[in-house]
Design a protein that fits this description.
Blueprint (H helix, E strand, L loop, with lengths): L16 E2 L10 E2 L5 E2 L2 E2 L8 E3 L13 E3 L9 H10 L14
Antiparallel strand pairs: 1-2, 3-4, 5-6
Length: about 100
């Protein structure tokens, strides 16, 4: 039995970016393309196969422990962003505001 099966799911990429600012920055810079590997998008601040553990994983690892970097890309649905924007009274939510890639 094959592990990967064809589906009818598809997507159009309508925005692409990386977080290139200093630590603590969350906004993304728009790009036309980027090179993606198991370390993430080239040029992104989060790039790397490993990272130091942070407050989100202190129940598993002491802060600063080198752990696998599992956040390589974030995929957001434009329709969902539109619905969220409408529900909180905004015209739109720009993906760059979310540190989205």
């Amino acid at each position: 039995m094959p592990a990967l099966k064809p589906t009818d799911y598809y997507a159009d990429v309508i925005w692409l970016g990386i977080v290139s600012g200093p630590a603590g920055a969350i906004t993304s810079d728009p790009l036309d393309e980027f090179e993606l590997s198991f370390s993430g998008p080239q040029g992104d601040r989060h790039f790397g196969l490993t990272r130091p553990s942070c407050s989100r994983v202190t129940s598993q690892y002491p802060r600063g422990t080198e752990i696998r970097n599992t956040r390589q890309i974030s995929i957001l649905c434009a329709d969902d962003l539109d619905r969220i924007a409408a529900s909180i009274g905004l015209d739109k939510i720009d993906p760059s505001w979310l540190g989205a890639m």
